[in-house]
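@channel sequence for tomorrow's demo:
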Amino acid sequence: MSVPVIEPETPPLRVDDTGAIRVGASRVLLELVVHAFEDGATPEAIVQRYPTVTLPEVYAAISYYLRHREQVGRYLATREKIAREVRDKINSSQGDLSDVRSRLLARSPR
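structure tokens (generated this afternoon):
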């Protein structure tokens, strides 16, 4: 009786040029999969939401997250900080946009 060989696998996660972690060969971000999972989505529902990832990739990404919560948590916190900084930069460069809608409505023919 032969014993089956079980080979270790690397999680299907890759870091892109911007430092974002993506799942498989897709452009789906790890944080999207993690947040959907934390919100109660099943891996099958996540694949329906992001059809460019496969079911095995989503399961593997979730498994990696569950085994490395602390590291993934730090990554997610860093990503949120970067997103907040980008939003703040955009908001500060745009100035006050509160009256844009009223100005556009005033210019449009009725």
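heads up for whoever presents: The first helix runs from residue 30 to 38.
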